[in-house]
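Milestone 3.1: sequence recovery, worked example.
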């Protein structure tokens, strides 16, 4: 046994014996995150406590602190888990079969449906509520969520520009334009409670369809544009 992890009682040995090192059990971790999700959704961030989450997740207070140092870390981890699901689905929408317009339609429909869902709208409201007190947390939420999502869209656009299928000088700016167009008349009314229910399929398709049409009208190559 040359490797220290092979010594009795060390992490590698414990895992091989089927026992999880403290804080490394993915099932227990998800159990805590699921409980936290329900508590944050019901009470909001500020009104929630670690005690509320331990009761909801059916774990001890000692257990929850093995996995998460505080409520802020728990919330950010929960948001990261939800983001990874969104990023995975949105990447598939952009890289699948179809024309540029068809792929943008799939992407936009998916993003609007997710971002304007009850769960994500509540998360945005939580961040807005704590933004003044915890600006770093709000900045991380934007950087790791909306900003990262737009970077993936910008990479898709860059590849299509290089293939000669789009004419865009600033793909990052174009990605912001397209995302905002997709959610026109939906996201802000949802965020501020003016639109109480999640948007219907018809409402989403109308908004995203208009965004795709405007985007392609502006950024699609024009016949003869490259001629001398």
């Amino acid at each position: 046994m040359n490797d220290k992890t092979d010594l009795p009682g060390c992490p590698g040995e414990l895992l091989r014996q089927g026992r999880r090192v403290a804080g490394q059990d993915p099932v227990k971790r998800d159990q805590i995150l699921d409980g936290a999700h329900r508590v944050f959704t019901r009470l909001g961030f500020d009104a929630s406590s670690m005690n509320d989450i331990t009761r909801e997740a059916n774990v001890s207070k000692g257990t929850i602190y093995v996995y998460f140092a505080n409520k802020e870390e728990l919330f950010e981890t929960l948001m990261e888990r939800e983001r990874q699901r969104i990023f995975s689905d949105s990447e598939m929408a952009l890289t699948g079969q179809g024309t540029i317009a068809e792929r943008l339609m799939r992407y936009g429909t998916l993003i609007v449906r997710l971002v304007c869902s009850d769960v994500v709208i509540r998360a945005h409201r939580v961040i807005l509520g704590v933004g003044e007190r915890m600006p770093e947390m709000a900045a991380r939420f934007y950087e790791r969520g909306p900003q990262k999502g737009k970077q993936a869209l910008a990479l898709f656009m860059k590849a299509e520009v290089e293939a000669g299928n789009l004419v865009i000088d600033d793909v990052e700016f174009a990605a912001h334009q397209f995302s905002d167009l997709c959610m026109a008349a939906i996201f802000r009314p949802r965020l501020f409670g003016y639109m109480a229910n999640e948007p219907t399929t018809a409402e989403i398709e109308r908004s995203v369809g208009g965004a795709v049409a405007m985007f392609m009208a502006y950024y699609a190559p024009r016949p003869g544009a490259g001629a001398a």
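Residues 135-162 form the longest helix (28 residues). The chain has two domains: 19-68, 79-221.
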